[in-house]
TrEMBL record:
Main location: mitochondrion
Record GO terms (molecular function): L-aspartate transmembrane transporter activity; L-glutamate transmembrane transporter activity
One biological process term in Gene Ontology: malate-aspartate shuttle
Keywords: Calcium, Membrane, Mitochondrion, Mitochondrion inner membrane, Repeat, Transmembrane, Transmembrane helix, Transport
Cellular-component GO terms for this entry: mitochondrial inner membrane
Source organism of the structure: Ladona fulva (Scarce chaser dragonfly)
Cellular localisation: Mitochondrion inner membrane
Cross-referenced PROSITE patterns: SOLCAR (PS50920)
Protein family (similarity comment): Belongs to the mitochondrial carrier (TC 2.A.29) family.
Descriptive protein name: Uncharacterized protein
UniProt xrefs under SUPFAM superfamilies: Mitochondrial carrier
Length: 223
């Protein structure tokens, strides 16, 4: 199910990455995309519909391990903060969520940087044939963890906000018997995701640009 969800929303992720990678300023020149819809149309026009799914394989490879690690760590840390009556303080939920978000970075950062490099490759004609294997060979082991600090900066607060918000919203949306219908679970996830994603967007932009950039030192000076 996670793979189905990741595939369904992947075009949005690709458009997000390309929008985040745009720079403004005299040393950059004219922007390639006016907005997200313009980006989507240009990808389809120049790369075909399949272009919206460039870099999907690394994303799918990381879905199951990412969720498994995140959910396991969240549950383990939550258990540590529970009292004898099974009550969990809010700060315990926040810490558990933050630990869950941080724990996944060691596994997901390599897949994330490969995915992002593939997503932006279509913007450059000469790089249109780039593959995941060539990206890994080019980066090397340590290069696969480029932008990891920014990844921590994004994933830790995101999960620290998302998990508690989801848990409490789910309770509020349950029926009189405490049962959650699929639509209520979907709504709880969406409600929890909005503030979490909004607040960490700056860190996500930084991470994207660091992972795309070939020379991080020059990039940071220019930025």
């Amino acid at each position: 199910m996670k793979a189905v969800g990741a595939t369904a929303v992947y075009p949005i992720d690709l458009v997000k990455t390309r929008m985040q990678n745009q720079r403004t300023g005299s040393y950059i020149g004219e922007l390639m995309y006016r907005n997200s819809w313009d980006c989507c149309k240009k990808v389809i026009r120049h790369e075909g519909f399949i272009g919206l799914y460039r870099g999907l394989v690394p994303q799918l490879m990381g879905v199951a391990p990412e969720k498994a690690i995140k959910l396991t760590v969240n549950d383990l840390v939550r258990d540590k903060f529970m009292d004898r009556n099974g009550n969990l303080p809010l700060y315990g939920e926040i810490v558990a969520g933050g630990c869950a978000g941080g724990s996944q970075v060691i596994f997901t950062n390599p897949l994330e940087i490969v995915k992002i490099r593939l997503q932006v490759a279509g913007e450059i004609a000469s790089a249109s044939k780039i593959s995941a294997i060539s990206v890994v060979k080019d980066l090397g082991l340590f290069g696969l963890y480029k932008g990891a600090k920014a990844c921590f900066l994004r994933d830790v607060p995101f999960s620290a906000i998302y998990f508690p918000a989801y848990a409490h919203t789910k309770v509020k949306l349950a029926d009189e018997n405490g049962y959650n219908h699929p639509l209520s679970l979907l709504a709880a996830g969406a409600i929890a995701g909005v503030p979490a994603a909004s607040l960490v967007t700056p860190a996500d932009v930084i991470k994207t640009r660091l992972q795309v950039c070939l020379n991080s030192t020059v990039f940071l000076i220019l930025e």
